[in-house]
Amino acid sequence: MLTKRYRCPRIVECIFTLEFLRNMSSKSQYSFRSTILILFSFFITLNSNGQDLVFSQYQKAPLLLNPAFTGISHYPFISLNHRNQWPEFDKAYISYSASYNQYIENLRSGFGIQLLADQQADGLLNTNSIGLYYSYTLQFLNDYRLKMGIAGVFGQTRLDWERLVFSDAIHPVYGPNGSLVSTEIRPLNTNKGYFDIQTGFLFHNDTWFIGVGLFHLNNPNVGYTLNSNSIFGLPLRFSAHAGYEFTLRENKKGFDTFLQPLVLVTNQAGFFQINTGIYGQFTSILSGLSFRHTVNNQDAIIGMVGYKFEIMELTYSYDLTISQLGRSGGSHEVGLVFDLSSLYPPKSNLNDCLKLFR
Fold first, then answer.
1. Which terminus of the chain, N or C, has less C-beta within 10 A?
2. Residue 80 three-state SS
3. pLDDT tens digits, residue range 10-27?
């Protein structure tokens, strides 16, 4: 899975080669890992359209999946996430998120806040954001609910320009420490602020759900290049997801036994991704297995395990890369969820099929 590619071809061209090419002057030939990264960096310059960060454990980061998931619990719900993608590539992608959301029954509304930090190429490109989320719930015939969500996200990207190495500054013999000087012009501002508008819908009853999320409705400008012909705006991302819950055994304290097949479809700037899998809770034990792929590429097999405490849930997942990036080291994710609803009397109209997201 690719995360956050910006429409700045010259910057994207060098972002993956930076630390590796700096060591070339003391070596007579490239290492295998450096060669792969260099080839990969030149490949992505052919089409530098972007894809957002999508956690493999997207159930543990519900606000990033769809703003309509705001207020999935009547009581304070907190989720923390960490992702280390392709660790063999020296901190290629490190991501953190933290969120809080809660449903207010008298207002039929959910309120939430989401913090996100994304570091690319060992901090060469950093993105930090804070989002405010709201949802409203319509109820039909006591069993069906339609949740409508909206979010406003304030973000900032920061580019460490001094660490960039562009292709025209790489000497064919002496590497980046040769006598060549890049003709690339430094942007006037390497800190870029933006505002992003998101929305989503979630339709569900007690056993199934189907939802749609739309992100970057205003195509916020996050580019740095000075080329006036470039398209800077983040492209619209479309996300569709559905699931069905098979309850095998109920428990009054929330330690139910159930299985839930899930599917997630994401499309952004010509990039199409499908996640299909099945997840389950067996009293206190959580587990899951899913498969992520595109139309023409099989990307990864994702295994997840976890343990549920009374008010806390800890999960770990690993992405086993099966594409040509098999030596990337896969991806590691940790999710930590705090759901205080188990400390209070259950609400009669609390939807059951969203237990996996709580």
1. C
2. strand
3. 344 344 444 333 333 333
